[in-house]
């Protein structure tokens, strides 16, 4: 990352890169871990704009209700497929049990 990338942006990218296979994080949890609990939408924007550049596992980021947030049905189905390949089970069509599949991370100190 270059020097004009903010600490928040660097932290968001670092967290997303480190989400383990078979686990998910929410936009809000990533924002909080990155130091700005109110920036879930900014996390979404960074994920959208930086996934290709940083090779991010974008499919492991979901909303706070444990649901896939993609707008189109094709995109939702693709994300669901990628998560199922990692062993994630859906309760409803696009909803994940966060108690089971949320990545339990309290700090980004050791990433």
Question: Which helices and strands, and how do they pair?
Answer:
Layout: H1 7-18, E1 25-26, H2 27-33, H3 40-54, E2 61-62, H4 73-85, H5 98-101
Parallel strand pairs: 1-2
Task: Give a quick summary of the entry.
The protein has 111 residues and is mainly alpha-helical.
Shape summary: globular
Number of domains: 1
Look up the CATH topology. Answer: Arc Repressor Mutant, subunit A
What would you give as the CATH superfamily? Winged helix-like DNA-binding domain superfamily/Winged helix DNA-binding domain
Poorly predicted spans: none
Helix content: 40-55%
Strand arrangement across the biggest beta sheet: 1-2
- Strand fraction: under 5%
How many E strands?
2
Element order: H for helix, E for strand: HEHHEHH
Provide mean pLDDT, rounded: 93
What's the CATH C level? Mainly Alpha
Structural key phrases:
mainly alpha; 46% helix; Arc Repressor Mutant, subunit A; 111 residues; single chain; globular
């Amino acid at each position: 990352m270059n020097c004009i990338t903010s600490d928040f942006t660097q932290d968001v990218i670092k967290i997303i890169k480190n989400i383990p296979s078979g686990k998910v994080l929410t936009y809000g949890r990533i924002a909080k871990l990155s130091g700005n609990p109110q920036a879930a939408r900014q996390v979404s924007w960074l994920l959208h704009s930086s996934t290709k550049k940083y090779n991010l596992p974008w499919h492991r980021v979901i909303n706070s209700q444990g649901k896939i947030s993609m707008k189109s049905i094709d995109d939702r189905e693709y994300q669901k497929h990628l998560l199922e390949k990692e062993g994630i089970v859906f309760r409803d069509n696009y909803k994940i049990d966060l108690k089971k599949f949320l990545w339990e991370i309290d700090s980004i100190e050791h990433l």
